[in-house]
Design brief:
about 200 residues; alpha/beta; Rossmann fold; six-stranded parallel β-sheet; 8 helices; 6 strands; nucleotide-binding; transferase; nicotinate-nucleotide adenylyltransferase activity; EC 2.7.7.18
């Protein structure tokens, strides 16, 4: 089974790399596909870097990482719906898994056709908070799907976010340790000099 790890990756950072490599180690997935989105419906007009730049950054960040591939599939359409991506890759690989952060999971009921998505995939949720109360009510509403929802509680809680990286760059603060070394200067320069 493959896992799809979608997001804007605006920019890609070391937290994304730790999460992807940890999930490969902990799960039975054959590989993870990093899936930068062109324009998610809930973030239209909110993405700083163009798709091609974010795709290239992802390719550089994950080069030589075992069992991780980068896909440009969601860059081929203007607006990306996760359910459409899942249906496409099901035709190729059969059942697929979807990987998301706990912060995204808390908003999943706002996603397009979220109920169908949850019925179709194995969901791997990596922790973003120290406290599970934020997802308890949601899990109670999804009891019939709970066997397909896997909280990866043994993963480290990583509080690096793309938002904080963009803000640090705009303030002229170092990105050392936040993003891959080979992308540090380029990401810093891009966000420092790109208007919000």
């Amino acid at each position: 089974m493959i896992g799809i790890y979608g997001g804007t990756f605006d920019p890609i950072h070391n937290g994304h790399i730790i999460m992807a490599t940890s999930i490969v180690e902990l799960s039975h997935l054959d590989k993870i596909m990093i899936m930068p989105t062109r324009t998610p419906p809930h973030k239209q007009g909110m993405i700083s870097a163009d798709f091609e730049r974010r795709l290239r950054w992802s390719q550089i960040a994950f080069e030589n990482v075992d069992k991780v591939e980068i896909s440009d599939f969601e860059g081929k359409k203007d607006v990306s719906y996760t359910i459409d991506t899942v249906l496409h890759f099901e035709k190729i690989y059969g059942k697929v898994a979807y990987i998301m952060g706990e912060d995204s999971f808390t908003n999943i009921e706002k996603w397009y056709k979220y109920a169908e998505l949850i019925e179709r995939v194995e969901l791997y949720i990596y922790p973003r908070y120290c406290d599970r109360h934020l997802t308890d009510d949601l899990m109670n509403r999804m009891k019939k799907s709970s066997e397909r929802i896997h909280f990866l509680s043994s993963l480290p809680i990583i509080q690096i976010s793309s938002t904080s990286i963009r803000e640090r760059a705009r303030l002229g603060l170092s990105l050392k340790g936040y993003v891959p070394d080979k992308l540090e200067k380029e990401i810093f320069d891009f966000y420092k000099y790109t208007p919000m």
